[in-house]
Structures are given as C-alpha cells and as structure tokens.
Amino acid sequence: MKKLDRLGWAAGIGVRAFGVHAGVRVNAAGMLPRISGLMPPGWKNSGRATVQRLYSLVVAGDSQRAGLRRMHILYADSERIARDTELDQVLATLETDLHRYVAESSPDMTFLHAGVVGWQGRAILLPGRSLSGKTTLVQEMLRLGATYYSDEFAVVDDSGNVHPFPRPLGIREDATYAQTKYSAEQLGATSGLKPLPVGAVVMCKYRAGARWKPTPLSHGRGALELMANSIAVRNRPQHTLRRIHKLVSSAVFVKGTRGEASETAASILDLLNSAVRQEKA
Amino acid sequence: MKEGEYPRARLDCLTREFGDELLVYDQQRNVGHCLNPTAAAAWKLCDGKKDTSELANILTQQFSAPVDEPVVLLALEELSKARLLIEVEKPVRRTSRREAIRAIGIAGAIALPLVTSLVAPTPARAASCLPKLSTCATNAQCCSGNCNASSHKCH
To answer: How far is the C-alpha of A266 from the C-alpha of A259, rounded, in Å?
Structure first.
C-alpha cells in the first residue's frame, strides 16, 4: 500500500453510501466525472479522511512506443483487481466491486440480490442469481407501468421496507452477455423515491416455452429463499434474519418457472392487485 | 460430539419464528433451514431428557391431534440430517416416510415433519456475477473477475 501511496495521484473522491465510506483516487484528474457516474445510487460526498475501502485507478499514459501495450490498472486497497488495455473494462470492475462492497458492508441496510419494482404502493421483489431473468422481468413490468427500484439489489431497512437502488438497468442484448445500460427514464418509466413495504416476493426461473403457474410459499419458506439471496448473511446473520422477518410480514410469496416475460409480468402485477384488494376488503 | 441418550437440539443456531414455522440459521455451516410446524415443535422439545414416546405424547397435546412415534422418528431423522441435533449415543431408530404417513392416516390432522435447507451464499455468489465457463464480455461480469479475452468465457 505504501508503494501505491507514493504514486502521483492527481485527484480523488470520497463517497458515503448506505453508511459505507469508500474512496477512489486516480492519476488523471479528468477521470473524476466518469468515476462519479459509477457510484452507488444515493451516494454523497464524504469529507472523511479515512475510508473503509480505497480504490486506486492508474490510467495508462499516451506512450507511442511500438509494441508497448498500455494497461489501465485498478487496485482495491492494496490488491490489484483489474488490469486491462480497455479502460471501460476496468471501470466496469470498479463499479461492480464498489457496489458489491457497499452491499456487503452496509451497517444500515440489508441487501438482497433481487430485482425490485413498485406497484400500488408496494414493492415486488424478484430474487434470483445472475441469468435468472430478473432484469427482463423488471423491464417488462416497467413497460406495464410499474415504478423502477432496482434490477440488482433490494435494500431493506430495519422496518422491513425496501429502498430504491435505481442503478441503470443492465440489459443483456445478445449471446455475448455484454450489457447495455439504460436508465428507467430511457425505458419510459420512472424511478421510485420512497421506501415501500413488500407486497409480493416472486421466485422464478426462466425456461423457454414454460407456462407460468406459480405455487404459493409459506412465510418461512419464503424467508429461507430470501436468506439464500442475501449478500451479507454470512457476516451478519442476526441483522439479516431480523430484517427479513420484518419484511415478510406484509408479503405474499410465490415460486415457479416462467416462459415469456410479458405473460409473467402481467400475472405478477395481478397477483399484487388481488392481494391489495383482499387486504382492503 | 456424543452426549446423552435422548435427542437434544443444538443451541448455537440463530432462530426466527414465522408463524408456526421456524427459520434456523446454522452459523457453523452457513446453512439456513426452514422447519415446518411439526418439525419445529419437535425440535423445540428436544432437550436431551425426553424419549420418542414422551415427545409423541407432548406433540399430541400441542397439536390436539394424534402424533404417533413414527412421526416423531421421521422428525428426528429430518432434524438429524440437517445436523440440528447433537449426536446421541443411542442412534435414533430410522423410519420411512411411508410408515409415518401410515401412522398419520390419509386425512392426517398434522403435516409430516419437513426440514428445507439452503446454503447461505458468499457475498460474491449472492451478487450478480457469472459462474465459471459462462459466456462473458467483461471481467467485471465474472465471479472470478476473469473473462478470457479469446474464448469469452469466465475462468
């Protein structure tokens, strides 16, 4: 770390997000606006001199020497986490690692790996791992009028309410799995601002041609599924279980295999409509 | 660790009640378990002092429905498989699910004991990242942080 400290740093930024303090320093001051765009939603400038995690980005210079490959390098504290000729690749790693670190370390919130939309004043959670089709389903629900909360994390507070984490949706458009980023507004939707109680939690896997016939899950089974999608359960099981317990009280849980997103999205929104109607009755 | 003769529940797990169900988190193995009402009631009674017939009697009172020994044995087997019991010197007699169903009867008033278990993920596994050999475009997409530039697969 001392060797890194001795390098010439041109600029830096301290950020606070969900109670986590992190910093990024860079050898090219012109990079700061791009780096600011990679911060977690809701971040604020932090005036703290010490941070929990410090990223150091070394942007390669304009050397014209033949045969010399210019490498951009990213360190998280003293560990090198990216080294590439493509700056975009290195910045993508910075964004992923920082968001993951915040999700893992936040003392204020519990992060669940889930897509989230708002509907009828309730949050719909779509927990699932990569490639389970969360973003596709979120995108389809936005098309049907839902409010965007996140395509990656459900951020749960002490009361069990879900806060927005409206990072741009990463849409995989072809077989290379390269993601293109779109804001909710670019997709014609709006992003949620207020925390919402959870109305429904939908566990689904995609299978081409499958018909969406979900089965209800009990609160205990639903809570177990949420635990299995929780980022920090191993580090803070007590906190995680407490917040999941709060979250579960207002929610209905279903699980199933889905086919096309359009059919499933409409059905999920209907499910919440019925739950809200029943509650009012 | 072998102790006593009768089944005893581990006390080093975190628990949360969800109605009659119980969520148990095993911090040693990083596994979560959901115990259905029958399994949860049986687990709570395992204090190392009661044999299976005593457990069956107490559960019968609790559920206001007959709970026979095969049902208790099945509950203990489920709990034991999930490693939620301290291993006892005298192993629990095995029973089959079929035997337990027969004991409850087709229109049984209680559910068969059931423990559902899921492993708690590491932070990296829980977040969006692609597993080994998945097709990728950038290093950031792979859990390993390494997307091979020529094969476009996570290494």
So the answer is: 12
Q: Whole domain around residue A118: which residue ranges?
A: 110-280
- As a whole-number percent, the residues of chain B with pLDDT over 70 amount to 68
Residues A9 and A127 in one domain: no
Report CB contact under 8 Å: B120, A227. yes
Q: How many domains does chain A have?
A: 2
Report chain A residues whose CB lies below 8 A from the CB of B34: 218, 220-221, 223-224
CATH number reported for the structural domain that contains residue A230 in this entry? 3.90.228.20
The answer for A 135-174 residues in CB contact with B (under 8 A) is 152, 170
A67 Cβ contact partners less than 8 Å away, ≥ 6 residues apart? none
Query: How would you class A103 by CB atoms within 10 Å of its CB: exposed for 0-12, middle for 13-18, buried for 19 or more?
Result: buried
Query: Among A70, A105, A140, where does a domain finish?
Result: A105
Closest Cβ–Cβ partner in B32, B125, B128 for A227? B32
**What tokens appear for A57 in the block?**
């980005």
pLDDT, one tens digit per residue, over B58-82 is: 999 999 988 888 899 999 999 999 9
Structure tokens belonging to residue A279: 């509650």
Contact check, Cβ <8 Å, B138/A89: yes
Q: Given a cut of 60, is residue A67 above it in pLDDT?
A: yes
Contact pairs from chain A to chain B, CB under 8 Å: 137
Query: Which residue numbers of B have CB closer than 8 Å to A's CBs?
Result: 14, 16, 18-19, 21-23, 25, 27, 30, 32-36, 116, 118-131, 134-141, 145, 152
Q: Do A268 and A141 fall within a single domain? A: yes
Question: What ipTM was assigned to the predicted interfaces of this complex?
Answer: 0.85
Task: Name chain A contacts of B113, Cβ cutoff 8 Å.
Answer: none
pTM: 0.87
pLDDT of residue A141: 96
Which residues are registered as beta bridge partners of A15? A22, A45
Give me the percent of chain A exceeding a pLDDT of 70.
Answer: 94
Q: Which of A53, A70, A105 is the last residue of a domain?
A: A105
Q: Is B8 exposed, middle or buried (0-12, 13-18, 19+ CB in 10 A)?
A: middle
**Same domain, residue pair A77 and A197:** no
Does A239 lie in the same domain as A185?
yes
Q: Examine the domain organization and report whether A221 and A180 are in the same domain.
A: yes
Residue A251 makes CB contacts below 8 A (sequence gap 6+) with A125, A198, A199, A200, A201, A219, A222
Instruction: Examine the domain organization and report whether A183 and A84 are in the same domain.
Output: no
Q: Give burial (CB, 10 Å; 0-12/13-18/19+) of A52.
A: middle
Nearest CA in chain A to B25: A237
Model confidence at B1, pLDDT cuts 50, 70, 90, reads very low
